[in-house]
Amino acid sequence: MNANSIQSAKQTVRNFYGAFDAAPDTELAAALAAHTSDNYFWRGMHPFYEQTGAQAVADVFWLPLRHSFSSLQRREDVFMAGNNFVDDGKTICVVSMGNLVGLFDQDWLGIPATRKMAFLRYAEFHRVQDGKIAESALFCDVRSIMHQAGCYPLPPPTGANIIQPGPRTHDGLMFEAQPPEEGEKTLALVNEMVADLSALNESGDDRCPPEVLQKTWHDDMIWYGPTGIGATYTIPRYQEQHQYPFRTQLKDKVFNGHIARVAEGNYLGFFGWANLTNTATGGFLGLPGNDIRADMRVVDIYRRDGDKLAENWVFIDLLHWLSMQGLDVLARLRDNS
Question: Is the pTM of the predicted complex or chain greater than 0.85?
Answer without folding.
Answer: yes
